[in-house]
Specification:
The structure holds two protein chains of two kinds. Chain A is an alpha+beta fold. Among the domains of chain A are: 142 residues, Succinate dehydrogenase/fumarate reductase flavoprotein, catalytic domain (Flavocytochrome C3, Chain A, domain 1, Alpha-Beta Complex); 120 residues, Up-down Bundle (Methane Monooxygenase Hydroxylase, Chain G, domain 1). In chain A, the strands form five sheets. A five-stranded parallel beta sheet of chain A has the order 5-2-1-9-17. A five-stranded antiparallel beta sheet of chain A has the order 11-15-14-12-13. Chain A starts with 16 loop residues before the first helix and ends in a 14-residue tail after the last strand. Chain B is an alpha+beta fold. Chain B has two domains: 109 residues, Ubiquitin-like (UB roll) (Roll), CATH 3.10.20; 124 residues, Fumarate Reductase Iron-sulfur Protein, Chain B, domain 2. In chain B, β3 and β4 form a beta hairpin. In chain B, α5 crosses α8. The chains are: A alpha+beta, B alpha+beta. At the A-B interface, α3, α5, α6, α12 and α13 of A face α1, α2 and α3 of B.
Chain lengths: 647, 245
């Protein structure tokens, strides 16, 4: 029988838990810190900020990234903004309100104490980022500006044009660079994690592969921090950067870290629709556009037909023949409902035959009213770069006709299970940012990913990780030539040799694209027991196809992007089965996990709190064996769990 | 559409490179330039041949990973975009397209179209930051920053570190890259205390790493995918002239 998961949530009132926790955490003497080695894998907001903060304290930090530079990490692509409970708009925002919005947005499937702490540290993130030189948008008085995001009735999102992620990452990266200059942090670029090394249940280091020379290296450490982001690329087409992958998560899962809520995936409502057979990714149009944009489809089928045939232009459709379906269905939140709600509503209209574009899988995002009201210059200032990006990709001018959008895979709420200290079930292995499961429940609110990444990296891990190290200051760093490391290196080498032996003629991308389609159909916006049952045999045959027919050319001792893709795809097959199992077992709808069998009369998600108010944490067993489910009950001491309504 | 591609192949930093010719048929105009390379690479795998190495990641023009020299221009014929934002509809049907890596001593070729741009990281490590420890920041509104200054800083901070400015410069100078970072930080009040040290250290490091000097050609500004202007170089030079730095 499975042991009970202890989340180590501190005692005491909600608003004092983090303070009490910090007071109780042990610290390491400054003189001892330079003897302690920490590995951070990933250099997005979470990884870069954690490495910088630990470097500032004086620890020896080795940082790994797959790209040529830490600055390329996928956090760079975040457009809209970062939330904080500053209440600069005087619209009655507070830590309490940000906490409630986030918890409710996640459909009560996240841990109360973690979410409260996230809201609590949000303000310090803004202060620190300003100090680091982030050029946040300002008003004429020199004060910071805010915009609104979905799932909230206050204006609390800080932004730097449509490039907030880039600006925040530059800040975290510059902090990291400062520590590199100080000699406390070493960056290993173009080096990919291939395995986690454990000994007696404790994380001892990692094995990496140099992506230029193919060299396999063992790096020992006192603690390992995983900040490798999400696994949305399992769907092949997503808004994720092409190199983002779930391999490190799978490696850690196989070494004993439980994987929590793997089936919780966010589908973002406003992306540029799929248009071509060889398309490699989907581009997001920031949620911030919903501040001024209105989403609609024609209400008459004749108009839909005429649009598809190119006989009329969208702007020619009169107001009374448009269905602003979000405003119609959710009058109080309107176009600013959470992402899962907006995605489903869009799919519902397209399923009803009212979708636009040649494929019928698109809706309009219309800013013409806002342009008329505020002027072109204002909209250009706010969203100019997004308009240009749209025009480049589609060839259509969004100033003339509304943009066409459709939902796409964007973010994974699931990830490694962590306790309140952000430690996984493997002692000494921590997971931060999108790589853990903690704060967003079954749906993440817009502008909260950046907040969580920096909260974990700057303000939470730098307290909890030293507490783990505190009683280990006399322990030497593990020996890279010891048996556990040698065995792990051999295993990695064997795996690479096995993949390099794939000499079929089917490119890895072709298999991956097929896997993505299968995942999108069975584990996309809507899931059903029937659909998921049909998925499994196809998954099996697809994996066999991959092992028998796919081919990798080139050598393993130079740059080999086909080999890299094959490593990721092999892990995605493992992950696909896990996501399938998780989504199938959760026979309720919540947030982005919409089970067709569990919906209200109005077609909204219907939770089953009596059966599923828990975190599903899956334990890996041997290859081919069924993973074991562990449940962490979600106890809400301070709020009333109610139906999530945005009407 | 039909294209002839002449692509630079080079197996390693110290090996001799050459152009390899490929014919691509039945390409939709909505295919992005990198997707064209994906299609070509899949074809190579099917024929058991080694694929063409190239850097790419976000494919939406913000990570700065991609960078190809296309028909003699970094990021291709259009202004204000990265290679991943270039679409085949931009080219004439039947045309020949030449694809090369960035060519610069400070960015050695790793393989084919992939170059090593870690020199940019090294320049930033020399001083491209504000020395604020985590936890020491005052309330964000204690320092007011005028909209104009914040916008100017943002314009400079839009740099994605792709290296197009260096690739197009006849001197292989990294002045646009350095000056934009110096401007982004030093325009803000938080960045002023270190402004002098920062500018000196970054410029010195740039020289050490083998980048050339700026002779005010302005090609960098023409090719910058984020439209960063040489005004930042002028500001940096002015700082040196008036002994501010």
């Amino acid at each position: 029988m499975a042991a009970i998961l202890d989340a180590k949530i501190p005692e005491g009132p909600l608003e004092q838990k983090w303070t009490h926790c910090k007071e109780s955490l042990k610290t390491v003497s400054p003189a001892n810190r330079e003897k302690m080695h920490v590995i951070v894998v990933g250099t997005g907001l979470a990884g870069a900020s954690a490495a910088a903060a630990l470097g500032e304290q004086g620890y020896r930090v080795n940082v790994f990234c797959m790209s040529d530079s830490p600055r390329r990490a996928h956090s760079v692509s975040a457009q809209g903004g970062i939330n904080a409970a500053k209440n600069y708009r005087n619209d009655n925002d507070s830590v309490e309100r940000l906490f409630l919005d986030t918890l409710r947005g996640g459909d009560y499937r996240s841990r109360e104490a973690n979410v409260y702490r996230l809201a609590e540290v949000s303000n310090a993130i803004i202060d620190h980022c300003v100090a680091l030189g982030v050029p946040f948008a300002r008003d004429y008085g020199g004060y910071l500006d805010n915009r609104s995001f979905g799932g909230s009735l206050v204006s609390r999102t800080f932004y730097a044009r449509g490039q907030t992620g880039q600006q925040l990452l530059l800040a975290a990266y510059s902090s990291l660079n400062r520590q590199v200059a100080a000699g406390r942090v070493t960056v290993h670029s173009r080096e990919q994690m291939m395995d986690l090394v454990t000994d007696h249940g404790r994380a001892r280091g990692i094995i990496t592969r140099d992506m230029v020379t193919g060299r396999i290296t063992a790096y020992p450490a006192h603690a390992v921090v995983l900040a490798t982001g999400g696994y949305g690329n399992i769907y092949f087409l997503s808004t994720n950067a092409k190199n983002s992958n779930g391999s490190a998560l799978v490696q850690c899962w196989k070494k004993g870290a439980f994987f929590a809520n793997p089936g919780f995936v966010q589908i973002h409502p406003t992306c540029i629709p799929v248009h071509g057979q060889y398309q490699s990714k989907l581009t997001l149009m920031s949620e911030s556009l919903r501040n001024h944009g209105r989403i609609w489809v024609p209400s008459r089928e004749e108009d839909v037909k005429a649009l598809r045939e190119g006989k009329i232009r969208p702007s020619a459709i009169p107001e009374q023949d448009r269905d602003y379906y979000l405003e119609r269905r959710y009058p109080s939140y309107g176009n600013l409902v959470p992402r899962d709600v907006a995605s489903r509503a869009g799919k519902e209209r397209c399923d009803a035959g009212l979708g636009v574009s040649r494929t019928g899988r698109a809706v309009f995002l219309d800013l013409s009213v806002a342009v008329a009201k505020h002027g072109k210059e204002f909209i250009e200032n706010q969203y100019g770069n997004l308009f240009r990006m749209y025009e480049k990709i589609t060839g259509d001018d969004p100033w003339k006709e509304p943009m066409q959008i459709y939902p796409a895979i964007h973010y994974t709420m699931g990830g490694l299970w962590v306790d309140y200290h952000l430690m996984t079930t493997v002692e000494g292995l921590f997971a931060i940012g999108e790589a853990n499961f903690s704060d967003h429940g079954a749906n993440r609110l817009g502008a909260s990913a950046l907040m969580q990444g920096l909260a974990d990296g700057f303000f939470i891990l730098p307290y909890t990780l030293p507490a783990y190290l505190a009683d280990k200051t006399t322990e030497p760093c593990p020996d890279a030539d010891s048996d556990v490391f040698m065995r792990a290196r051999v295993a990695v080498q064997e795996r690479i040799d096995r993949l390099m032996a794939l000499k079929g003629s089917v490119p890895v991308d072709v298999v991956h694209r097929k896997l993505g389609n299968l995942m999108w159909d069975a584990l996309g916006i809507e899931r059903s027991a029937e659909g998921m049952a049909a998925m499994l045999p196809q998954l099996e045959s697809m994996e066999e196809w991959f092992r028998k027919e796919s081919g990798i050319t080139g050598s393993q001792t130079t740059v080999n992007q086909e080999l890299e893709k094959a490593i990721h795809l092999e892990d995605y097959f493992t992950l696909a089965r896990l996501m399938h199992r998780d989504a199938l077992h959760r026979e309720e709808s919540c947030g982005g996990h919409f089970r067709i069998e569990s919906q209200t009369k109005e077609g909204e998600t219907l939770r089953d709190d009596s059966r599923f108010q828990y975190v599903a944490a899956w334990e890996y067993k041997e290859e081919g064996e069924v993973p074991v489910l562990h449940r962490e009950p979600l106890v809400f001491e301070n709020i009333k769990v109610v139906e999530r309504k945005y009407g | 559409m039909f294209f002839v591609l002449k692509i630079w192949r080079q197996s390693g930093p110290r090996t001799k490179g050459y152009f390899q010719r490929f014919e691509m048929e039945g390409i939709s105009g909505d295919t992005s330039f990198l997707e064209l390379l994906d299609i070509l690479n899949n074809r190579l795998v099917s024929h058991g041949q080694e694929t063409i190495a190239f850097d790419h990641d976000c494919r939406e023009g913000i990570c700065g990973a991609c960078g190809l020299y296309i028909n003699g221009r970094p990021h291709g014929p259009d202004e204000g975009i990265t290679t991943c934002q270039l679409y085949m509809r931009r080219f004439r049907d039947g045309s020949t397209i030449t694809v090369e890596p960035w060519r610069c001593g400070a960015f050695p070729v790793i393989k084919d179209l992939m170059v090593d741009r870690r020199a940019f990281d090294k320049i930033l490590q020399a001083g491209g930051f504000i020395s604020a420890n985590t936890g020491c920041a005052p309330e964000a509104h204690t320092t007011l920053i005028t909209k104009k200054v914040a916008e100017e800083s943002m314009d400079a901070s839009a740099c994605i570190g792709c290296g197009a400015c260096v690739a197009t410069c006849k001197n292989r100078s990294a002045m646009l890259f350095v000056a934009s970072r110096v401007s982004a930080l030093s325009l803000l009040p938080q960045g002023k205390p270190e402004a002098s040290r920062r500018a000196r250290a970054m410029v010195a490091r740039m020289d050490e790493l083998g980048f050339g000097s700026c002779t005010n050609i302005g090609a960098c500004q023409m090719e910058c995918p984020k439209n960063i202007t040489v005004a930042h170089i002028a500001r940096l030079n002015r700082g040196f002239l008036y002994c501010k730095y």
